[in-house]
Amino acid sequence: MAVESPFVATVRYVKRDETGDRTGKPYILHYAAPEGFPQNNFVIEPVHGIQIHNLRTAKLDYNEHGMTIATIDDSGLDLDRFDDDDWVESVYLPRLHEAICRSLGAKDMTVFDWMLRKRAPSFPRRCEGEDNVDAHQPSLSAHIDYTEAELDSRVDSYFGTDKNKMLSRPYQVINIWKPLSGPCRDFPLAFLDPLTVDASQDLFKVDEVFPTVANEVFQVCYNPKHTWYYIPDQLASELAVFNAFDSKRGQSLAVPHCSFDLGDSGSGIPRHSIEVRAFVFY
Length: 282
Description:
Blueprint: E1 7-14, E2 27-29, E3 44-54, H1 55-58, H2 62-65, E4 67-71, H3 85-104, E5 108-118, E6 143-144, H4 148-159, H5 163-166, E7 171-179, E8 189-192, H6 199-202, E9 203-209, E10 214-220, E11 228-230, E12 238-246, E13 257-259, E14 272-281
Parallel strand pairs: 2-9, 3-11
Antiparallel strand pairs: 1-3, 4-12, 5-14, 6-10, 7-12, 7-14, 8-11, 8-13, 9-10
GO molecular function, one term: oxidoreductase activity
Protein name: Methyltransferase
Family: Belongs to the asaB hydroxylase/desaturase family.
């Protein structure tokens, strides 16, 4: 039987600070910086020749690698419906709840954040006046959405006085990503096997600064031991599910991820997708 070849792509990583003379905490501003003020104080560089394997055929165990593919009934989940926030809340999220609990064997799920991304035609550049210029764009640098300290700081706002009750059960924080139409051949999402990550050396704490809030995330430095996966031709009925935190194992299974360019193998049709962040309880 022929062995399937991985896709070879470029992934953007944080450049390691070999000198150790960095001053101040790393940050990146998600708004126009004042004149003369750096937009960020670290360097993201492309690393070429990264092999990205087929998650469909890898047969990875979610409980050991923190990533899996689930399915959802996509009947009636037309792309244009997702522009209606009320419809997403009343139709999509309840259907997602059922799909995730069934796939992971969870007893309940609480969504705390969701976001649409609509790639602008000029991405990764952005041209004023074009469609989707203000929309969230694919994220090209390898990252984890939260540090453990960041999650701790948010729990009170998520659960309030119910915090102790809610978190008394085993739980995970997960990300659920899907294209709004498929097969997805435009900037699909890639997932880094956390078992190949040296957390002490490869993960880099960064403050993502918005006009009214700052979030602490992990960016990722390149390591030749990293093993990447993606879902080729992901369908609108397929959910990429990956871990960000586990109440028993901390962030040992947190999955770094990013979008990547398929180059000549891509469709050129700008990707629309939805990502949902949630607590799942067992």
